[in-house]
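Tryptophan--tRNA ligase
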Amino acid sequence: KTRILTGITTSGTPHLGNYVGAIRPALASAQAADVENFYFLADFHALVKCGDPARVQRSTLEIAATWLACGLDVEKNWFYRQSDIPEIPELTWLLTCVAGKGLLNRAHAYKAAVDRNRAEGEDDDAGVNAGLFMYPVLMAADILIFNANKVPVGRDQIQHIEMARDFGQRFNHLYGEHFVLPEVVIDDNVATLPGLDGRKMSKSYDNTIPLFAPRNELKKLIAGILTDSRAPGERKDTEGSALFQLYQAFASKEETAAFAQAFADGIGWGDAKHKLFERIDAEVAPLREKYEALMAKPAEIEAVLRDGAARLRATHATPTLVRLRSAVGLRDLS
Ligand code: TYM
């Protein structure tokens, strides 16, 4: 069976970018025969940027409820919280010892922090925690521990998957063929979903549209999407339009073509935003209802997560670490 694995960091409220880039494609591919799916909440990763315990807890609940509301079947798929699997940080250390420091120096998120510091005349690593630097190794452990074949993610994560392959390959070279090298899966229809300001929709830019914002809030947020100042009747460009790209991510080919025509015909921005709101709301409204019902039962969500992790440890994570420990020369726990 092909193993498909993906995770979301529990540092905020799930947004349309997470849905379009990760949740929707991952659940769509779950329908195929001969696949085994792993969906998880990356709460260790959340600690890198978020020092707010209440927020991590809240986000964990929200992201779990989101997966479930979007149709994840916990009987047929693995669904778990990263920090419930202590074998993941254990494997992180084994991989740390084969990971090239030079490769980690080039990781986008770390490099961006260094570049910012340089621009401001600070020391390269001023204010950078080692968690940010090690982030790709932890992520490689998430993927390699379950020998995932495919990892559906948004484009921003491609480099991380490449690094996971690199660390896995080095480990295999030193200790024998233990790891499958994962392949990245990108939904070509949706490169990177833009946020309200036209940059990539991201918690760190504060430009997100929460996936399950109440209807009124969704409408208000969409009204705030940045557009140019062309008046109704003037031809609008689809190229580079966040509004258009958001619409495209939620519409069929035919609907998208009709929307492009409306742009050419000079649709007013207010009307275009209204169409976008209706398109998104049509897809999201039934899921929102389920989400709200789930959020009212946090104890049930907690039980589902614990059960998933316990079964996954017993069948996969624990035996894998027994093998890996003896492969590298640590005490044999079997
Ligand atoms: P995170 O939490 O930032 O995002 C979760 C998923 O959503 C995708 N995504 C987007 N896709 C399209 N457009 C956007 N604007 C957008 N914003 C976010 C991300 O690409 C990602 O697929 N490091 C990961 C979490 C992680 C993980 C893993 C993923 C930890 N371990 C192992 C896969 C496998 C992250 O922070 O994603």
